[in-house]
Queue: 3 jobs
Job 1
Amino acid sequence: MGRIKMTSRMLSVFTLLFFSGIHHLEAKTIKYEKVQLDIAQTEIPFEELLDIGIMLFDPNVPKKEDPMIFPEIRKAEARYMPYHLKKTLESTGHWSGVWVLPERSKAIDLIIVGRIEKSDGLDVELKIGVWDIVGAQWINKTYKSNIAGSSYSKRRDLTQDPYQNIFNKIANDLLQIKQAKAREDLIRLSQTGEIRFASELIPVYDEYISKNKKNIYSLERLPSEDDEIMQRILEVQEREFLLLDTLNEYYGQLYENLSQPYEDWRKLSREDMITYEELQRSARTRKILGAVALAGALATDGDSRASSTMRQMAIYGGIEGLRSGFATASEAKIYQESLKESGADFDAQAKPLVIELEGQTIRLTGSAEEKFQEWRRLLKEIYIDETGFTIPQAETE
C-alpha cells in the first residue's frame, strides 16, 4: 500500500543508470589563459616614473581550521608572492623603484596591498588593493586564474612563475591606470608624496598640503628650491630607500630559497587537487545513483520472479553504490592529509635568514615590521641631528 508500481523496464532503466554512472567520472573543463605582460618599448621620462611599495600579503589563514589551507604554506606565500610581483613590475620598464614593504611608507608613490583568497597549485585567487600617496584608490579587485599543468614544465621559461598570469594581470591594470593620467598629474603626485614624507618628520610642512573629507590630499604649494631643510629631508628619504634595498635583499634571498620547494609543492598540490575534486564528484555521483537505484528497487511490486530478481540486483547495486561513494569520500580525505604533509615539508625549508644592517646582525621574519619601525624612529633622530629641529612628543609616540 502506498508503493509506486514499477515495471521491469523502468527498473532496468534505474539499474542501467546506476551501473553506468558509477563507472563514469565527470571531467572538469578548465579554460587556461595566457596573459601577455605589457613591456615598455621606449624609455619612460624620469619625471613620469612612480615608485611602488608592495606590502607583505595577508596570508588569510582562517581561525577555524580548514583542511585545505595550511598556515605554514600561506605564510610563506605571503612573503613569496609580493617579491615575484615586484620582479614582474620591474621587468616592464614602466616604473621607478619597486620594493616589498613590511609596513606602509610615505616615501613611496603607490602602495599595493594583497590578500590570498585561494592558492592550491590549480587555482589562485588574490584580492588586490592599490592606493597612491595622495590617497586615491587605483585598484580594488579580485584576480583569479586557473593553472595549466604546462606551467610547471621544466622546459618553460623559468623566469615565469606558474602563477605568472595573475601577476601580469595586476601589472597591466596598474599600467593602464597610470597611462590614463596626464604627465602633470603624475609629477604632482610625486611632489605631494615628498611633502607628506616631510610633514611626517616635521609638522611645519603640514601647511603645504590639505586633506578633504575623503582623505584625499592636495598640494597647496611647494617649498622653494633653496629650502635647505627640505633638501635634508630628501636626503633622509634616500636613506629610507637604502634601508628598503637592504630589506629587499633579505626578501630576495628568501624568495630564491623558497622558489624550488614552493614550485614542487604547487605542482604536487595541483595534481592532488584535480584528483581530490574528481573523487568528490565521483563520490557524489555514486551516492546519488546508488540512492536512486535503491529507491527504485524498493518501489517495485516484486510480483514476478523476474522482477524479484531485478529488485534484488538493484538493491544490491544501490547499497554498493552508496558504500562506494562513502569509500571514495574517505579516499579524498587521504589526499587532504597528503597535502598537509607536503605543507609541513615545505615549511621546513622556509626558514628565516639573517642579514647585516648598519653593523648589526638582524634576524628578519615576523620582526621585520618592528625593525622597520625602529629604523623609522632612527630616521627622525637623524633629521633632528642634521637640522637641529625637535619633533613634538606627539609625533614620536
Job 2
Amino acid sequence: MLNYCIKLKFNTALHVGKESQTTDMSQSNKIVHNDTLFSALVIESQRVFGNEGMRKFIEDNIKGKIKFSSLLPYKAEHYLIPRPIIAIKSDIADNNKDKSFAKKMKKLSFLPASMLKDLIEYYKGNQNFDADFCLNLEKELGKEDIRVNCKINRERTGQDNMPYYVGTYSYNEDSGLYFILSVEDEKSFSRILKIIKSLGYSGLGGRINNGLGKFCVEDYVLIDENAQNKDLMILNSLLTNDKAQKYMTLSLCLPKQEEIKEIVEGANYSLVKRSGFIQSANFSDSLCKKKDMFVFNIGSTFKQNFTGDVFDVSPFEGNHKVYRHLKPFWLGVDV
C-alpha cells in the first residue's frame, strides 16, 4: 500500500460536533473523525463519479483497498498525532512527580509524531518531556468562536424568529488538518484526490450550507523512507512497524463481533458515542438518525491489530444502506 499525507487548508471556519455527540451546537471540535470524512466522501463520490463511482468507493473501503485516518492537526512542519492511551510501569513513585507538571500532562491531547518516543521514555521514568511545547502548539493552531444564527419562522404563526448558537473553530494561517490515506496504486490515489478536492468546494463538517468547512488541498506527499520532514519520517517507521509491541489507532474504530474477544486483553482505550443524522435526501422522506454506537477513540492501543468494518447504521430499511466507517488506522508503537 502507498501512504500519502494530505494537508487541508481551511478557507472558512469549521463546525464539527464534539466526541460526546451532545446536541449543544455552541460547541465545536477542532478535528474531523474518519466516520465523518467517510460519509462526506461517499456523497461527494456520487457527485463526481455517479452511482457506480460511489459504490466502488464504498466497496474499496470495505475490502481494505482504501484506508485513512481521522483528520488531525498540523502546524507549520509539525504533524500532530493523538496522545496514546497506554499503560507503562515506571520505577518512579507517583508521589515524587511534579504535581504542576502532571496537570499539564492531563491537558495534553496531541503531540508531534517525532516526540512520541520522548513521551514513552517519560512514562518509563527515563527522561523529561516538553509538555509546554506540545500544549503551545495546540493552543496556536487556531481559535474557537460562537456564531449567532437565526431560525426564521416561515409558518407565520405569530411566533418570533429564534436565535441559535453555532460553535466554530478557525485555523490560523500556518495550521490546518491532515490525514493519511493508504491506497493500492497511484491511479487509485488520483481518483480519490479528485473527490477530496471536489469536497473542498462542498464543505466538510456541519452547517456547510452556512459556508462553513470549505477547504483546499494545500499539499500531498508520499510517506516513505525518503521523507524529508522529521514527523513524516517517524510516521513512516510507525506505519511500517508490523511487529510492534502495541498498535495505536489514528481513527475511530470497532472490531467485528468475532474479533472482540481476541483484542480486549491488554488493550488501553477510551470509548466515545457516535450518532448523528442521515445526510442523504434519498434514504427517506423524513429526517432520520443513524444508529448510536460506542466505539474506540483515537489514541487507543492494543496488543494486536484487527480489521474493523464499515458498519450499516440504517435505523430501518430505507431506500439505501447508511454506513459508518469504523476501520482502524494503525501505527506500530514499541514500548
Job 3
Amino acid sequence: MPIAILISLVAVGGLAVGSIGCFLIFRYTASGLLRKAEEEAEVIKKNKIVEAKEKFIALKLEHDNMIRADEQRKQQREQQLNQRQNELNQRQSELQRGQNELAQRTQQIENQQKAIEFRQQEVDKLHHQAQQQLESLSGMSAEEAKKQLIEALKDEAKTNAMAYINETMDDARLTANKEAKKIIIQTIQRVASETTAENAVSVFHIDNDEVKGRVIGREGRNIRALEAATGVEIVVDDTPEAITISGYDPIRREIARLSLHQLVQDGRIHPARIEEVVTKVTKQVEDEIIETGKRTAIDLGVHGLHPELIRLVGKMKYRSSYGQNLLQHARETANLCAVMAAELGLNPKKARRAGLLHDIGKVAENEEELPHAELGGKICEKYGEKPDICNAVAAHHDECEMQTLLAPIVQACDAISGARPGARREIVETYVKRLNDLENLAMSYPGVIKTYALQAGRELRVIVGADKISDKDTEILSFDIAKRIQDEMTYPGQIKITVIREVRAVNYAK
C-alpha cells in the first residue's frame, strides 16, 4: 500500500512538473510570435505610408498638369477671342468705308440723273422745234406724215409677203415627194385582225372535284412537286371543276397546264410521275416554239433567220404586251411595214423582216438592264442581221438615232398595230375613270356648261355658254385644255378637243 501511494505521488508530481513546463514553453513561444507580429505590422504600416505618399504625389502632379492644361486652353481661347475681335473690328471698318463709298456713288448717280433730265428737256425742245420747222416746210402735220409712212410700209410688206409665198411654193414643189412620204409614214393605218388577250393566270378544267384531291396528294406532296417542277403556283380553291395556274411566265403556265392534262388523263399522280411528265411536256413545248417560229417566218416570207432568232420568234406566241399577243402584234407590224415600204418605193422584204423582229428584245432570256428596243438591236446584231435591220429594231422607240428610212416605218407601224381600237385591253374601271377625269378636267374651267367624252375617250367635246366666253376665247380654251391633258394625264394615241359655242333662240307658238 505505501508503494502505491508513492507511485501516485510521483505521478502527480510529474504531471505538475509537465504542466508547469508546458506553460512556460507556451508563454515563451507566444511572446515570440507576438513580437514577430508587431514587427510585421510595423513594416506593413511603413509600406502603406510610403504608398500613400507616392499616390499623393502622383495625384498632386496630375492635378498640377490639369491646372496647367486649363490655363493653356484659357490662353488659347483668349487669343482666339482677341483675333476674332480684331477681325470684327476690321470688317466693321471695311463696312463703314463701303457705306461711305456707296453714299458717294449714290450722290454721283443722282447728279448724273439730274444732268440727264436737263439734257432730255433740251433734246425735247430741239425735237419740237425741228418738228415745227419740218411741218412748216412740208406743209403736212406729223399725223399726216405718219399715215403716209404706214401706207408705204404696208405696200412694202405686201410685196415682201407675196415674194415669200412664191418662194415657199417653189420650195414645196421641190420637196413635195419627200414631205408626202413623211405624211404617209405618220398617217397610214391598215390591217385589222383578231387579238388574243393573255392573262397572268390559266384555268385547267376538270370533270369532277374528286380529281382535286388526287392533284393535291397526301399532305400536299403532289402539288408541291408540280409547283417545284414547273415554277408556277397551283391554286386549288372552291371554284367548281377548275384548277387555277398562276404565274407571270406564260410558257411555264402552258407547261403546267399540259402536264396536268396528261397526269389527270393517265390517273397516276405522284412526285416521280410528275417530274417525268413535266420533262416530256417541256420538250414538246420547246419543239412547238421552234415550229411556230419556222411557220411564222415561212408565212411572212422571211428567209435566212438564225435558228436562235427563229426560236425567239416562236416564244412570242406565249408573250403579251398590254393584253396584245406579241406574235400577233409582230405579224401585224411586219405586214404593215411591207405595205408601207411598197407604197414608198422601198424594199418590202427588209421592212417585213424588221417589223417581225422589232420586239424580239421582249422575249430575250438574258434580262439585261436595257430598253427592249436597244436589247433587240443587239440580239439582231449578234445573230448576223444587217445594220439597217438592227438600227430599225433598236430605234423604233427613239432609244437610238434613226439612220435609215426603215426605222421610222417600223416605229409608225408599231404604233398603228398597238394603238388601233381593240388591240390592247384596258381594265373597265381604269377606262371609266379616264373618261370621267377627262370630263371633270374640262368642267373645271369657268364658262363650261357640259362636257362629253366620245369615241372611247379619243375626242372631248366641250360646250360653253355664249354669254360667258367669246369666239376668240374658245380657241384659247381648247388650247389650254389640250395642254393640261398632255401634262396631267396618261392616254393612248391622241385626243381631239372640240369647243362648241352657239346661240339658241327658242320661242313657242301658242
